[in-house]
Structures are given as C-alpha cells and as structure tokens.
Amino acid sequence: MKKVKVAILGFGTVGQGVYRILIEKRSQLKQMLGVDLEVAKILVSNPNKPRPHAAKELLTNQIEEILDIPNLDVVFEAIVGEEPAYQYLDRLIEKGCNVITANKVMFSKHGKSLQEKAAKHGVQVGFEATVAGGVPVIKTMDNLLRVNKVQRIQGILNGTSNYILTQMRGRGMAFEEALEDAQKLGYAEADPYNDISGQDAFRKLMILSELAFKEQPDWKDVKVQGINEITSQQVKEATEKGMRYRHIAVVQKNYKTGEVHATVRPELIDQSHPLYSIEEVNNAVAIEADLLGTVTLVGPGAGMLPTASAMVEDYGDMLTKTKNVISI
C-alpha cells in the first residue's frame, strides 16, 4: 500500500482536529482511501510549547522544513489570517503539492489565483472547510453546476451569530448576555468582532460567489451589517408576530445585466423562509438553481471535528479524481 506523506500548517483547534483524525482513524482511512497517511511535519509558531497530542520531533516553525520533505503529497492548512498562509500555499503548489485549506480569510481573496496555479502544476486545491465547516456546500454546488445555473444563494454562515439570536429569542437574553454565554461555551472567540460584525459571513459568501458565478461583487459595494444593534425588545416583538431575526448572507446574479449583488445583514423572516427553523450554532445554505429549484443544506458550521472532517474528506475526493484521470 502506498504511503502518503502529509503536513499540517497550524495546530490550533482545526489543525489538531486534522491530526487527531489522521492518527485515530489511520487504519480506517487505509481501507477507505487505499493509502497510508503519515504525518511528516506540523508547522507551529512555537515548537517548544508542550503539545501532549503530537510528538516533539514532528513540530517545526520553519516552512522550509515542510517544503524540503521528499515526496510530500498533501498539506492541510489551518492558519489564521491571510498571511503567511497564502505565500505558504503558493510555494507548496509550485513544489507540486496538493493543498487543503480551512482559511476563509485567505481563500476569499486568493482562492482563484491558487486554483489557477494548481491547474498549471497538476495538483489540486481543497476548500470545503472554508464555508460552513462540515456542511458539504462546496461539493453540492460543484454537482449542481454541471447542469444547473445558480441564480441565488442565501445562508446563515456564522454559527456564533445564529446562537446569539437563538438565545435572545428562546431565553430572553440581551445581546451582551447571549454573547458572553457563547464565549463561555467556546462558540465565540475572546474577540468576537468577525462573527458579530458579519465579516466572517462576508468572506464565506465571497467564496460561494466565486464558485457559483466565477466572479465576486466589488467588495466595497457589499453592505455588511452585524447583529450587535438588535435589541431583546425587537426580538420579543418579532417573536410575538411569529417572526425571527436571522443573520443572512445573500448573493445573486442578474444574468441579463451580468451584475452580481450581495448583502450580509440581519433579516426578519417568517415560517415560509427556508432558514426560519435553523437554530443554535447550525449553519444553513439555500441554493436556488434554474432546473433543480431550491435545495437547503443544514449542519454544524464550525468546531474541531466537523471542519477537520471536511478537510480529510477533501483529500479523499482528490484521490478519486486522480484515479479517474489515470483510468481514462
């Protein structure tokens, strides 16, 4: 059986999740994928920090050590922020390595260039985990686009905001109280700005726009509004009318004019809306296509194992595509 060398960039929640799956499920992955995945190196900021789940000899803070691994086949990238993640993946693709990312901040801006470069070098880029964590939005969209024309996408793309709105309605909490609760449970970061401001959902929406329409709207033209100005009184009044606040990201294309338009903002919706029943930290994406109509995907949008699972599944898809190419 072929042994495949793997590296992981970043060892926070998602990076540790990938490592855990590769180690704990190694035998199962051998049977399912037909290869033996061996973690060769893990890039961290401080290799001297005690990490009980990974052997010290696997740790490095030098990207050159990753680039120098002979026959490195795939890298799982889970670094926070645009740089140095982009430059690292760019160099790895030049080396002829497949890359899989969960980094929506980086990929929303550089995804197109990375995919174009990967095509030139005969490798693949996996990015399922950049949008909605473990919900297979990217794979579903890929399948739809074979025969359908996507007209509109709307989604709840941030589990933290959805959790806060759920608690404000279900438990009568004020915004600040619900946010504090989300932080205690680990749903929100110590600095929750990207979640509650809508920036996290915006980046994910731009990735979906690029996939569906092969383009993004001009970022400066996209109205992005968070949930921090919604009051408990507003939520109470909406509930009494049978309506709910949801933080919804929408992108659509007018095929007559060619214009792509997007918004990220709180919306007041009723039971007829496909996102009305989405609760707690779940994400959901409703895709409207010309032939299929509307299909809605729902599931956990974040967390160690859902996101890491999506990344490992991406590699399984890469192997399938490679086998299909070889067999033709």
Automatic annotation (TrEMBL):
Ranges of residues in domain Aspartate/homoserine dehydrogenase NAD-binding: 10-127
A GO molecular function for this record? homoserine dehydrogenase activity
Q: Which UniProt keywords apply?
A: Amino-acid biosynthesis, Methionine biosynthesis, NADP, Oxidoreductase, Sodium, Threonine biosynthesis
Q: Where does NADPH bind?
A: 104
Question: Where would I find the Homoserine dehydrogenase catalytic domain in this sequence?
Answer: 136-314
Q: Does the keyword NADP apply?
A: yes
Residues annotated as catalytic:
204
Q: Name the Gene Ontology biological process terms.
A: methionine biosynthetic process; threonine biosynthetic process
Q: Which Gene3D superfamilies match?
A: Dihydrodipicolinate Reductase, domain 2, NAD(P)-binding Rossmann-like Domain
Question: What pathway or pathways are given for this protein in its record?
Answer: Amino-acid biosynthesis; L-methionine biosynthesis via de novo pathway; L-homoserine from L-aspartate: step 3/3; Amino-acid biosynthesis; L-threonine biosynthesis; L-threonine from L-aspartate: step 3/5
Binding positions (NADP(+)) = 10-15
Family the entry assigns = Belongs to the homoserine dehydrogenase family.
Protein name as annotated: Homoserine dehydrogenase
UniProt lineage: Bacteria, Bacillati, Bacillota, Bacilli, Bacillales
